[in-house]
Amino acid sequence: MDALFKLDNVSYAYPDGSSGLDQCSLAIRCGSRTAVMGANGAGKTTLLLQLNGILRPASGTVYFNGVPLDYSRSGLHRLRSRVGLLFQNPDSQLLSASVQEDVSFGPLNLGLEDTDVRTRVADALQTVGMSEYGDRPVQALSYGQKKRVCIAGLLAMKPEVLVLDEPMSGLDQPMQAELEEILDTLHRRGMTIILASHDSGFIYRWSDQIVLLSNGSCLHSFQTGQLPDAAHHFTAQALGIPAVIPVYQALVDQQLIPAVSLPPRSISELTALIKQLSVSARSI
Question: Is 177 exposed, middle or buried (0-12, 13-18, 19+ CB in 10 A)?
Answer without folding.
Answer: exposed
